[in-house]
Amino acid sequence: MSLVRDGVVERARLDELIAEEERVFVTRQPRSAAVADRARASLAGGTTSSWQITRPQPVWIDRGEGSHVWDVDGNEYVDLHGGYGAMAVGHAHPRVVEAVSARVRRGTHFAQPVEDAVVVAEELSRRWGLPLWRFGNSGTEATMDAVHLMRAITGRRYIVKVEGTYHGHHDSLQVSVYQLLPELGPAERPVSAAASSGIPTEIVRLTLVTPFNDPEVLERVYAEHGPEIAGMIVEPIMMNAGIIRPADGFLERVRDVTARHGALLAFDEVKTGFTVGPGGATRLYGVTPDIVCLAKSLGGGLSTAAIGGTAQVMAHVANGDYEQVGTFNGNPLAMAAARAAVTEILTPEAYAHFDRLRGAMVEGCERAIAEHGLPAHVVAIGAKGCIVFSPTPVRNYRDFLEIDDRFSHLHWLMQHNRGVFLPPWGKAEQWLLSVQHTEEDCERFVGNFGAFAAAVSSSADAQ
Ligand SMILES: Cc1ncc(COP(=O)(O)O)c(C=O)c1O
Predict the structure, then answer these.
(1) Sheet (strand 61-65) strand order
(2) 271 CB under 6 A from ligand 1?
(3) What is the rounded distance in angstroms from the CA atom of residue 198 to the CA atom of residue 15?
(4) Which of 15, 23, 48, 410 places its Cα 20 to 30 Å from the Cα of 94?
(5) What pTM value is reported for the model?
(6) DSSP assignment, residue 343?
(7) Which DSSP letter does residue 91 get?
(8) Cα gap 130→144, rounded to integer Å
(9) How far is Cα 88 from Cα 298, in angstroms, rounded to an integer?
């Protein structure tokens, strides 16, 4: 009997496999363990972001080059983590190194605009079809500006967001993110729940929640609150719950209902921008929002973000009605890297390269899934992809919650111990290819996935 056949999971055996791989993981990384110990005395929780804390221990990275990274113990990995989706250009890309080195020598910060910002903004306009842009420093800032702007323009108070979507850690959108089922309320009438401590209930109540791919609840939310809704923010492809594609017509419905009620629509393309296609999900699905938020792969590995909008929306920024500000906005170093990324590296050839490699990864994984009868499937778009450990498609966050996360954790550990660095946080995350990945890199990933599939299905046979 297979560990997973007919959907039956031999829980104890799965836990044993995880424990074994965690032992190997720790054995391979004694120096990481020592740095982690030292770090606990000066870094809260021992890392620089709570999402860098991984089980069994954080991985401390020494360097990255091309499609590979090395940890402080000298272990080499094919990097499919991609810095949580920011490294579509790969590590130390020669064009980024050149552009950033040249900029460093000419000064890195003035809090005055530099010409590179114009070139980047022009390219974003071309790709997204929105004329006017501003820069920030993180995805969180971009979606926070979007929320402020939607409220400033309409003078209304409610924001609508999708249940289970992460948009950054500011108050208005830290609502109903990674909640457990009992906190979510009934599916047809989801409740707004604080996703973090420190957010007053009064603010949580101003964010209304609707499930992804559910036009009925969407329409009801607008029917009940329409005149007070400032706008809606949505990830056009949901990417913090594996990868969930929009159902046919869903984005069009979102666009339509928002416009009908005089509200604005913002697409959060922090993850999808530059990775699912040259003009993100906006161009892929042909639905244009009023506002687009970008970050991650925009910066070619440096931290930057952008918010773009229609002429009507951005007039409120241009005329000072909404003050979009920041000391490091349009920072010269980040703009130099972003210019190289968007004008020289993420070219049409880059997207053809992603298509080729993705095809090989999907095919290899699907073959192993079929061979071993795993209740899993692959979802992949552009440079992004993931294995979903469910036999049936996932339509929304509630479907996603039903997936047993231990499969993803075991898969992550087995890939890691065999030289492939996937993003931690199991079932929520996706792989990211870069322009510097090769067929051999993908073969290593597929080979490891085959080993995982064999381990999961043969281990129970041996019992
Ligand atoms: C869809 C989405 N929006 C916004 C953010 C926030 O971006 P940042 O971490 O740069 O603040 C993230 C981060 O993972 C994200 O995935």
Answers:
(1) 61-65, 68-71, 76-79, 420-421
(2) yes
(3) 34
(4) 48
(5) 0.96
(6) I
(7) B
(8) 19
(9) 9
